Every structure is written in C-alpha cells, then in structure tokens.
Structure prediction request, 154 residues.
Amino acid sequence: MTASARLLFSLPALLLALILLIEGACTAYFDLAATSTATELSFWGRENYKPTPVTVNRTGQTLSTLLKYRPMDPAFLAQQAYYLSWQGFFAGDIEQRLAFNQQAVTTQYQSLQQRPAYRQGWAEMVEYASRTRGGGEMLAQAQQRIAALQPARN
Prediction:
C-alpha cells in the first residue's frame, strides 16, 4: 500500500476523530456552563448574597448562549425561567416585574412540555404563576398536575 493510499484510507478516520473531539468539547462546555449557572442561581436570595449587576448580566448571557444551541433543553429552559423570575424581583417598575414574571411562566411552561411529569417543575410553576396578572388558569393547571403526580398512598 502506498503512502497516498494510506493517507486516503486514514482521512475519513481523522475527520471522524476531529468531529468527535469538537462534539466532546462542546458537550463539556455546555455542562460546565450549565452547572456554573445553576450554582450561581441557587445562591441568589440566600442569606445576605445579592448578585452584582455584572453577575446578573453574565448569568443571562450564559443562559442565552446555552439556549441558542439547545433551545428546547428542559433544564436550560427551567434555569431561564428562574433567572427571569429573579429579573422580575430585581425590577423597580411594577410593569417590568409583571412582564418578567409572565416570561418566567411562559419559559417554565416550555420546559414542562419537554418533561411533563417533573413534579418540582410544576411546583415552581405554581410560584411563578402566582406572581403574574391573569395567572389563575396556569396556577390551577400547575396545582392539578402536582396533585396528579403525587405518589400513590398505600
């Protein structure tokens, strides 16, 4: 076998290895970004911790990047809903607050469409829907889903 034949034979394997390497790097990036964002969000409102405006913006940008590449990922959507809920909390204007809370409800609902049996997600929906104008229908739906997802009593 000549050198050019070996090169031609190995080229598809090298291309496949490169594609797998890039895919692995992207997966690692998404996992690290999602984990760091979830960790950051979990500290908001705990004890005396209040994120700086720079941290709030960076968290929002990271979530936007994650959702750009995986727009229907239920975990990313749930994190975005939580972030929007906090944006509503930080908003000084009541109309802004209501708009952010409505966006949180919409985003959380998108997340729940991907995993409808996720009881914790429905519990969060109860919280988000209770803070919106006209959220009674979604609040009732969330409460019904939570009741339906309770473990059977023996």
